[in-house]
């Protein structure tokens, strides 16, 4: 066996271990941490709707009270869904939408002002730095990962799928099935 073959074998083994053991734990940690963060935030908003509504009015968000109730519920119930891995992909979509609205209404108007003194105009560099250091942008990226990758194997979603006889396909199997479908369609054409 050549050195290249040996390295390839150990690389495959390492990737297999990471895929089977590290990825599920990483997704669990990601889901639970972000889920609990938002569940607690939503709980606080629900119990202080008057303050949230006042803040939304200040941001000129239409139907401020209705939006405050909706955002509070999305954060609370979406956060709980992410924590337990229940309808993870679906729950991450409205949570992503709340982050987009937060960025557009609360963050962009004041972009870069935290980097300069009062009365000074932020430079492009200040705005650029402020944009990419927003918590909301990080949350949006995490939600995008959860929509794309799913909850992982350590989730209620996966447990229910196994329990009802519908184990999710692995990525390679899904790609293989897609390639076969394309080949069949090409043969028929």
Keywords:
189 residues, mainly alpha, extended
SSE order and pairing:
Blueprint: H1 3-46, H2 49-58, H3 64-84, H4 88-107, H5 124-132, H6 135-149, H7 156-163, H8 171-188
Supply Rg: 22 Å
Tell how many strands the DSSP assignment holds.
0
Are there runs of 5+ residues with pLDDT below 50, and where? none
Q: What is the overall number of helices?
A: 8
* Secondary structure category: mainly alpha
Strand content: under 5%
Shape assignment: extended
**Helix and strand succession?**
HHHHHHHH
Question: What is the terminal-to-terminal distance?
Answer: 45 Å
Largest sheet: none
Provide the residue-averaged pLDDT. Answer: 88
Helix content: over 70%
What does this structure look like?
With 189 residues, this protein is mostly helical. The protein has a domain of 128 residues. 77% of the residues lie in helices and 0% in strands. It has eight helices and no strands. Helix 4 runs antiparallel to helix 6. The longest helix is centred in the N-terminal third of the chain and has 44 residues. The radius of gyration is 22 Å and the shape is extended. It starts with a helix and ends with a helix. The model has no long low-confidence stretch (mean pLDDT 88).
